[in-house]
Amino acid sequence: MTNKERFEGIHFKHNLYEQEARKRWGDQPVDEVNIRLKNMTDGEQKDLSDKWTAMFNKFALLINQSPKSPDVQTAIKEWFDFLNENFGEYSFDAFYGLGQLYIEDKRFTKNIDQYGEGLAKLMSDAITIYIDHQKKGGTH
Question: Where does the TipAS antibiotic-recognition domain start and stop, copy by copy (predicted)?
């Protein structure tokens, strides 16, 4: 499967997970993200899609590392920052919940694991470690 086929980046105009997001986090944050995405030009959406794909490709290179490793933890912080910069404010609790979705919701697992078998679990575990560290006053 080519990178283009994996997510086609992501389809910003039709989000298959919107109903789940509304159920978990409410209408307001979902509406805010939809407005932000709707106001992007096609070029901006392609840029965002390319960054999204690059992030997952980076995680795929780390798949054999421990979720505690500095490289994986740096990548998770970058993912947290990327989500906050592009998709609204993610609290630590919301980010933790997203990490749980990666392994509890088979749609997420399937999409993420296209980049490498077990990647969804690695990311979920790394998110849990990252959040625990941050809540204890970590500076990573």
Answer: 17-130
